[in-house]
């Protein structure tokens, strides 16, 4: 595991490791006629965090280009895999989204775009765990995948592309059950993002959009986030640097289906087997990888001292000022360059919350689309009916490391901007919440 030491002024350390709606719309599409064949699909989900393959032309997340030196892109050191089964233990659904076009591989016509196939759109249940053999020592010795099974209905004369997305349909946001933050985001990651499914959708246009929830000081549910006061009155506190939006991101996994033993993404009605015979019932398989970055903040909550009065931290929000909301889904590398930030004005959006009635060590964790962003916390402190709401920026010394053999220096932290990459895990340790609020305060 790659480890870096960085500082907020208090100690901070960083370790690099490393859907959509369940209800499917029924669309009116023309169903082709001809012989058909149902073939089995076997889906597996990679549990380990891995480092992206080393390469001098690997694209940096959006906005990170200026933070690199020594080359025209950025790359990361491929230093092995780290097991993360606990992160996917509750991933329980796989959404299959299929696209088809007429098969012109015999040269009888011009290939058309792959179009959405509503008849092969389905949600599969994760069955359980499957033991996985190691490959050249790259994977952890004790290694398992989550897996699901289904079927694809192929029709003669057509070829297919099959995309699979996995998610947790039972995950809840920490603040959903709090009286001050109810009715905001429905339980289940499939409710936290949209797929642009519609009749005539092409594979190249297929995308996911993470939802944002606008907070409103006239709405009881979110008054406390803006004012610190959950009653019907109260003035806003330190909101000039807020977008007044919140979001929750799924731990989204992506993969495509193909014939076993063949990585070709295009699936045809029939193919030639190892014996030279034409077969149309060959099973399909797909291995899904994490498209998101994970951010873990280990923070020690302390009483906030104001004069002679000590205030307890009641709740805490983790915020970023450049959080992406859209990614195309035709290829895994689409997750390297997501788009549509929540805002372009440098204001902060909350993407994780915890509630606490006492001081001590707490953990915040969230998944986000790759980006380069500043981080901050927003917290409410209370004592016998008196409250304050404060913001503090998470500041860190610059972190960089050389990529083996490429001559490129990758920046993970540069001038308090954090670069978060696909399928990487970042662990930040902060030993004092009061230090952040008092010494790195933002209005």
Can you walk me through this structure?
With 443 residues, the protein is mainly beta. Helix content is 4%, strand content 44%. Strands 3, 6, 7, 8, 9, 10, 11, 16, 17, 18 and 21 form an 11-stranded mixed sheet that branches. Strands 14, 15, 23, 24, 27, 30, 31 and 36 form an 8-stranded mixed sheet that branches. Strands 1-2-35-22-28 form a 5-stranded mixed sheet, with no helix packed on it. β23 and β24 form a beta hairpin. The N terminus is likely disordered.
Structure described in brief:
The protein is mostly beta strands and 443 residues long.
Compute the average pLDDT.
Answer: 78
CA-CA gap between termini: 37 Å
Strand content: 35-45%
Helix-strand category:
mainly beta
> Which percent bin holds the helix content?
under 10%
Low-confidence stretches: 1-29, 51-80, 402-406
General shape? elongated
Count of DSSP E strands? 36
Largest sheet: 11 strands, mixed
Number of helical segments with 4 or more residues? 3
Q: What's the gyration radius in Å?
A: 24 Å
């Amino acid at each position: 595991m790659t480890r870096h030491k960085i500082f907020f002024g208090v100690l901070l350390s960083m370790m690099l490791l490393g859907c959509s709606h369940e209800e499917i719309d029924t669309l009116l599409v023309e169903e082709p006629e001809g012989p058909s064949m149902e073939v089995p699909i076997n889906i597996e989900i990679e549990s380990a965090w891995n480092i992206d393959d080393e390469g001098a032309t690997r694209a940096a997340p959006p906005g990170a280009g200026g933070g690199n030196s020594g080359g025209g892109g950025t790359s990361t050191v491929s230093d092995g895999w780290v097991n993360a089964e606990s992160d996917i233990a509750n991933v329980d659904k796989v959404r299959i989204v299929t696209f088809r076009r007429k098969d012109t591989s015999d040269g009888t016509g011009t290939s058309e775009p792959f179009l959405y196939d509503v008849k092969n759109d389905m949600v599969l249940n994760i069955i359980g765990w499957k033991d996985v053999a190691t490959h050249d020592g790259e994977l952890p010795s004790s290694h398992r995948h989550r897996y699901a099974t289904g079927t694809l209905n192929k029709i003669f004369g057509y070829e297919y592309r099959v995309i699979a997305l996995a998610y947790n349909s039972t995950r809840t946001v920490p603040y959903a059950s709090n009286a001050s933050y109810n009715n905001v985001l429905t339980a289940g990651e499939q409710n936290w993002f949209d797929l642009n499914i519609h009749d005539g959708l092409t594979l190249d246009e297929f995308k996911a959009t993470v939802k944002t929830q606008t907070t409103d000081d006239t709405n009881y549910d979110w008054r406390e986030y803006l004012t610190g006061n959950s009653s019907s009155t109260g003035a806003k506190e330190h909101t000039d640097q807020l977008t007044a939006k919140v979001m929750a991101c799924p731990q989204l996994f992506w993969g495509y289906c193909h014939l076993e033993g063949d990585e070709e993404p295009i699936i045809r009605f029939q193919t030639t087997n190892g014996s030279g015979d034409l077969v149309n019932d060959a099973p399909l398989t797909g291995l899904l990888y994490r498209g998101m970055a994970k951010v873990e903040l280990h923070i020690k909550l302390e009483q906030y001292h104001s004069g002679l009065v000590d205030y307890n931290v009641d709740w805490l929000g983790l915020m970023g000022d450049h959080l992406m909301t859209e990614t195309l889904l035709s290829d895994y590398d689409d997750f390297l360059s997501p788009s549509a930030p929540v805002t372009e004005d440098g204001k902060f959006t909350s993407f994780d919350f915890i509630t606490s009635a006492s001081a001590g060590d707490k953990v915040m964790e969230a998944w986000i689309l790759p980006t380069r962003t500043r981080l901050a916390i927003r917290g409410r402190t209370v004592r016998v009916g008196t409250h304050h709401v404060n913001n503090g920026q998470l500041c860190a010394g610059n972190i960089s490391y050389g990529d083996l053999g490429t001559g490129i220096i990758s920046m993970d932290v540069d001038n308090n901007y954090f670069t978060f990459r696909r399928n990487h895990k970042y662990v930040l340790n902060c030993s004092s919440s009061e230090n952040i609020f008092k010494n790195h305060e933002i209005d």
